[in-house]
Amino acid sequence: MQLNFKILSVVSLAVVLVQPVTACLQAHAYMSNCVFAGDCLSVQVWDNGNKACDVTKCQNLASQDTVYSFDCGNNYKLDVTGNAANAVITNTAGTFQLENIDTHHSSFVCGNFGDAAEIHGTEFETVFSDHSGCAGFDDPVLCDFGTFC
């Protein structure tokens, strides 16, 4: 009888080990576009409430088709497109298209030609969640155009 219990325990443990691990992936992205300062994207990613990625990348003359790719280390890779409106995370558990749960944009003065004219830039902010495994976690919130929350 004791041998059957040990076999059942090993089988139960094996079943638990092959079950897919469901994590809660969430992100905040802030993008600032300005012809003089470049186009910068800052992203934070949380996995089960733990910060997994905190990165910034700038490039000149980005468009909504520009793909910002980040290697965050710790086996996290991130692609953000559409002026920070779309995010895909790849980690050891797979590739996840995050849901855009809230977004906004605004314009700001990023330069001028003396008294002649102001140059306006655009900023975008988006928060994301994959909603799988996120029970017990609050959705991320916008940070009033803060680069990082």
Structure commentary:
The chain is mostly beta strands. Helix content is 11%, strand content 53%. It has one helix and eight strands, in the order αββββββββ. An eight-stranded antiparallel β-sheet has the order 3-2-1-8-7-6-5-4, with no helix packed on it. The longest helix has 17 residues, at 2-18. The termini are far apart.
Largest sheet: 8 strands, antiparallel
Count of β-strands = 8
Rg over C-alpha atoms, rounded to the nearest angstrom:
21 Å
End-to-end CA span = 57 Å
How much of the sequence lies in strands comes to over 45%
Main β-sheet, spatial strand arrangement: 3-2-1-8-7-6-5-4
What gross morphology would you assign? elongated
The number of helices is: 1
- Give the assembly state of these chains: single chain
Whole-number mean pLDDT = 82
Helix and strand sequence: HEEEEEEEE
Low-pLDDT stretches = 5-20
- Helical fraction: 10-25%
The helix/strand class is: mainly beta
Give the arrangement of secondary structure elements:
Blueprint: H1 2-18, E1 25-34, E2 38-47, E3 50-59, E4 68-73, E5 76-81, E6 86-91, E7 94-112, E8 118-129
Antiparallel strand pairs: 1-2, 1-8, 2-3, 4-5, 5-6, 6-7, 7-8
